[in-house]
Amino acid sequence: MTLANRASTTPPDLLGWRRQAFGVGIAVFRIILGLVFLTNGLSKVGFDFPVLPGFLINYDGAKGILANNIQDHPVGVYKDFVQNVILDNYTPFGILLTVTELAVGVMLVSGAFANVGALIGAGSILHINFSTLDGWHTGPWAWEEAPLWGGLILLAIIGAGRYYGLDPRVTAMLPPRLRRWPLSS
Asked: What residues contact residue 153 under an 8 Å CB cut-off, 6+ apart?
């Protein structure tokens, strides 16, 4: 039996079930990643989540992690920029980080502009990965971030906001010339 014959003998309701399960899976994955960003952003503005002790990075913790990551960074220009611009002027950058995490979290959880949120989230995770460059071959965090940024890029590519998200409704309010990727699923 060929693949075409087998597909034609598959009951139509089974194909519908697979499509629906795929959509639910994408929505759950999108929401979980959104909650990661949202809870980290909320912890930076002072919210405490007792059910997640030690898993969230607060405002000062983010600064400490970045300062630690660049100590032996092999790219001098990057190390100097982070040390002399970002860390020495951490208040505006810390606020920007907090707003970014909150915005990415809201976009992913709601499914509104989910592609944009996923791309911004992937960029922030890639920055964290780059800041650990001295440990790409030996560091404990070198490859643990890849499922996060890889998953976020996949969510952006497939248009995850159209699966049980607000993207279709929000996109309909945009001018026609803006109704395309990445603003629209």
From this structure: 118, 119, 122
